[in-house]
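We modelled the chain as a single entity of 252 amino acids. Its sequence is:
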Amino acid sequence: MKFTKNLIERYSRQIVLKKIGVSGQKKISSSNVLIIGAGGLGSPISIYLAAMGVGKIGIVDKDKVEISNLSRQIIFTTNDLKKQKSSAAVYKLKKINPHIKLKSFSTKITKKNINKIAKEFDILIDGSDNFRTRFLINDYCLKNKKILISGAISKFEGHVYTFNFTKKNSPCLRCFMPQEPKNLDIDNCEREGILGALGGIVGSIQANETIKEILKIGSTLCGYILIIDSLKLNFRKVKLNKRSMCYCNAKN
């Protein structure tokens, strides 16, 4: 992408940062990211990454906008009710930043289609709402040596993980959760409830971690879990070790 005067001005507050500069902004603009889920996490993730100039963003979501989504899925408005989430999100993101490439996938991500959808993206961001999808994305990224930025929210608590499978020492989601829950398709938000603003907190951190991984700056979250308690306003970073008997050791 040619950096015009208009683009330099658009990203000027990032370019002025010594750890980014013009070269860093060019890396951001040449990066490609797939966001799975356009909900409470996917909304703030996609808004910030589009605004910051990530060159190519894919949005995967099979659902349509429902009224119960509007308290936390901030990319949508009442006028979007009954619209496909992925295409409605892409429409909004184009208005935020017309200089980036956007692709909508109005489908459920499965074992059969994940490679076709994700093969052109280097970083996957998990904003899904069920364990089956989370494990599927984890296993795909591990097999194909991609970077995965994963987030989860429930009630008043959120988790953020970075799994960098381009490195052999990265743990995976199965290191944290060896035993799969009985109901992998459970939607925690629907069953347990969720504070809307928590999605913004966790999603913004996921977007921040994505930019750090693109630029290779700061301290990576890989090898840790960031746990957020929004009621006590506690942020804890807990070590996540690679489990010796884990699936990821057999794959590396």
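As a brief sanity check on the tokenised model: The radius of gyration is 17 Å. The chain has one domain: 31-251.
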